[in-house]
Amino acid sequence: MKTITVNDIIIDWEENMNINVILQRMNYTFRMLIIKVDGKLVKKNEYESTIVSPGADVKVIHLMSGG
Amino acid sequence: MNISEMKSKHKLLKDYSYELGEIEKGYTNRTLYVNLSNNEIKEKPVTQLMKDKFVGGKGFGLKLLWDATKPDTKWDDLENEIIISPGPIGGITQYAGAGKSLVVSLSPLTDIVIDSNVGGYFGPFLKYAGFDALEIQGKAEKDVIVIIDGKEGVIRIEEAPEEAVDSHILAEQLTDMYAESDNKKNLISVVSAGVAAENSNIGVLNFSFYDKKRKKVRLKQAGRGGIGTVLRNKKIKAIVAIAESIKPDANHVVDIEAIKECGARFNKEMRELDDDQCRMRKEGTAHLVEIMDDYDLLPTENFRFGSHKDIMNIHSSVWRSKFTQGVFDGCWIGCTMACAKAVDGFELKTGPYKGDKVIVDGPEYETVGGVGSNCGIFDADYIIEANFYCDTYGIDTISFGTLTAFLMECYEAGIINKEITGGLELTFGNADAAIELMHQMARGEGFGVIAGLGIRKMKAYFAKEIGADINFLNDIGMENKGLEYSQYVSKESLAQQGGYAMTNKGPQHDEAWLIFMDMVNKQIPTFEDKAEALHYFPMFRTWFGLMGLCKLPWNDVEPANNAETDEPGKVPEHVQNYVTIFNAVTGLNIDKAEMIRQSERVYNFQRTFNIRRGYGLRKHDAQPYRAAGPVTVEEYESRIERYDKQLLENIKVNPEGKSTVEKVAILREYKEDMYEQLLDAVYKRRGWTKNGVPKITHLKDIGMDLPEVLEIVESLQ
Ligand code: SF4
Hey, are the CB atoms on A27 and B285 less than 8 Å from each other? Predict the structure, then answer.
């Protein structure tokens, strides 16, 4: 089974896996995110078009808010 | 009784005239002292040392309170004070969130210093009237109001027998009474509490501002630690500030253009980005409710769980539809974040104001979590009603929510029952029982009086009077240092456990909110990383309290290019705005590093203040186990996959074949050890001994080696 890593968690990879699919899979619903795939920044308007490959290291940095 | 009849019943106890003067570079260079025992009123100079070491706001409050009290002064002693200070940036109108007041007092809940940050117009008006801080000591014999007339240059203490005590009525009465005309009501701000503040330890101060658009008085709360209880104990009905006008450059800053430039950039971010980011202008902090639920962080049923199936009933879209939209909801002038949302025309269903249609300020996230989900109540109208009554009765929604949740768990565990509660069936989800508990608190009767003691004193009471198991109560009673926890589940974030229990005043998230950074992003995996975060963020966030600033505009909107910066979590552009603004107000020349130093001095002073009072050591930073892990079998089993995995991966113990009771015990031992290791790492980073005492070398390094501070810590090195 092919996998990717999201915030140090290993999850199954799937065909055409874009950023929105990953966010949905992880249930990451917070809106203030910084996303990097293998160290490269992905802008919000690129979430749909950015397809990740097996073995990718995805960082979804949640910023702080509230409080 | 009409307003003029009410006013005619006032009895003047003392008036004091003074020169109005000017604010220079953010400071008036004097404070106002009022003693209600002997009606003494005087001005005190602000020394250079005060500015250098304590800066303003909370720093001034701590310094004045230290000087005014003895190590054994109790919250209800004559010497205890309520100090309100806006800070040097407070009162500017060109950058969002610059109207906050910092309130400092000895707390009836914690027996140490409490500080609380609050909006409304009082702090700026106090400064416009000529004072960097107001210090109230002593106690009146009968109910009084203190009037700070910044128009005439007069301070008055007046007995005021006829006005209401509950804030929503009182603030309106006094606004009507002291405003020159209807269109000058916005030049009045009132500080008040309410009847439940008299009968409980969880009293708040309400700070008013007049909403010209709605033609209504609005209330913002200095919520934590029972300062409203201190107010009523001093027999203060209200403190009124009257301003001559709101001048855009009342602070006489050094470089107004620099502030305006920062403000314009910030306002553009709000206009262009808020709808995609936090939606503060439409939902306020309530935008967080379902997000916290999604990440298993929304406390439900006394922090046992972090999410609930009925979340849709209290979802942010519900609040958005209840909040009046399209009006400017800033709690100080110029705040384009405008998150002080309100429900208009809400018809009350219970209590002394049943049937009245009222404006309700909020609910904010903390209130939804506190009186709602944490009590298992997923009913928006109840939450609004509880919000209203907490405010007008003058009690803290966070403490009320957390202590009610504690009582509900005690009830369901059979520790208390109807006989003990006087008939209240305090099961999770029972909104009728919860609101009746609050009304009892307001009336000072029944089980409401016990509840109003706060969790720490209730635990002792239940152990002593009904033989409850104190260990279990200590595990589930969500308090540290005597203050009730605010509304985030910290079980899966060790850093946040520190962010709560290593605070100076008790577990309020305003020092550090690290859950995402720690639990979700995994950005701070080592103890050293966590310690660095538990140094930087509490110091950084302390700075808002020195200045008279609101923290929300720092990171509830972020510049479009924030992601491309080195440390996006710190929002570097906004940090630079604050440095620029401080320098532009005062003419000084600090940088980001000195900003942290300014806070460190005050933070260490506050820690030392706690030590001086017999607290502030390692043992006082202990947390209830519920904040770290599952106390009960039911809790463990509700997240069994997660906890079993932790046993296997973190502790290298195979969960198979073990009973849940055994697994709870193994996990607990591990989590408790982790917390002790965190304490070591954080104390080291903060320059403290293993017992949590500031080291003399560190105090010298940061320039806080004042003789009175060294005297306290010397023997504890
Ligand atoms: S951000 Fe919200 S709480 Fe802060 S000053 Fe503005 S309106 Fe008030």
Answer: no
In ligand 1, the atom with minimum distance to the C-alpha of B119 is: 8
Looking from the CA of residue B340, the nearest atom of ligand 1 is: 7
| C-alpha closest to that of B433 among B458, B412, B460 | B412
How far apart CA B424 and CA B433 sit, in angstroms, is 6
Chain A nearest CA to B292, separation (Å): 9
Nearest CA in chain B to A33: B563
**Do B278 and A65 count as a contact with CB atoms less than 8 A apart?**
yes
Count of domains for chain A: 1
B461 assigned to some structural domain = yes
Residue B632 placed within a domain: yes
* CATH code for the domain in which residue B182 is found: 3.60.9.10
Mean of the per-residue pLDDT values for chain B? 97
User: Which domain, by its residues, includes A36?
Assistant: 3-62
Same domain, B77 and B197: yes
pLDDT in tens, B101-142: 999 999 999 999 999 999 999 999 999 999 999 999 999 999
Containing H/E element for B45? Answer: strand B40-45
Q: Residue B100 and residue B54: Cα distance in Å, rounded?
A: 17
Is there a domain that residue B247 lies in? Answer: no
Q: Nearest CA to CA, how far is A47 from chain B (Å)?
A: 14
Q: CA–CA separation, B87 vs B75, rounded Å?
A: 24
Tell me if B584 CB under 6 Å of ligand 1: no
pLDDT category of residue B327 using cuts at 50, 70 and 90:
confident
Number of domains into which chain B is organized: 3
Distance CA B105, CA B227 (A): 7
Q: Which residues contact B124 (CB under 8 A, 6 or more apart)?
A: B86, B90, B91, B99, B243, B246, B250, B332, B548
Is pLDDT of B463 > 80?
yes
A8 shares contact with chain B (CB less than 8 Å): yes
B556 at the A interface (CB within 8 A)? yes
Q: What local confidence, expressed as pLDDT, does residue B614 receive?
A: 98
Residues B305 and B269 in one domain: yes
What is the pTM for the complete model shown? Answer: 0.97
Cβ distance of B513 and A63 shorter than 8 Å? no
Q: Please report, for residues B383, B657, B667, the alpha-carbon distance to residue B477 in angstroms, rounded to integers and kept in the order given.
A: 22, 31, 19
Ligand 1, from B279, B335, B361: best to mutate by most atoms within 8 Å of Cβ? B335
CATH number, domain of B633, equals: 1.10.599.10
Does the CB of B566 have a partner CB in chain A at under 8 Å? no
The yes/no answer to whether this complex scores an ipTM above 0.90 is: yes
Based on the domain organization, do B269 and B229 belong to the same domain? no
| Domain span including residue B547 | 527-716
CATH code: domain of residue A22: 3.10.20.30
Contact across the interface for B555 and A65, Cβ inside 8 Å: yes
pLDDT attached to residue B143: 98
Q: Is residue A67 part of a domain?
A: no
Q: Are residues B445 and B581 in the same domain?
A: no
Backbone angles phi, psi at B292, to 5 degrees: -60, -40
Residues of B within 8 A of A8 (CB-CB) are 522
Inter-chain touch A63–B291, beta carbons under 8 Å: no
Q: In sequence order, which residues have a C-beta less than 8 Å from that of residue B125 and are 6 or more positions away?
A: B148, B150, B187, B189, B241, B242, B243
Residue B366 sits in the same domain as residue B401 = yes
Do B261 and B231 reside in the same domain of the chain? Answer: no
Find out whether B454 and B268 touch, Cβ atoms under 8 Å: no
Q: Specify the residue with its C-alpha closest to ligand 1, atom 8.
A: B331
Domain boundary among B424, B454, B484: B484
Q: Is the pLDDT of residue B474 over 80?
A: yes
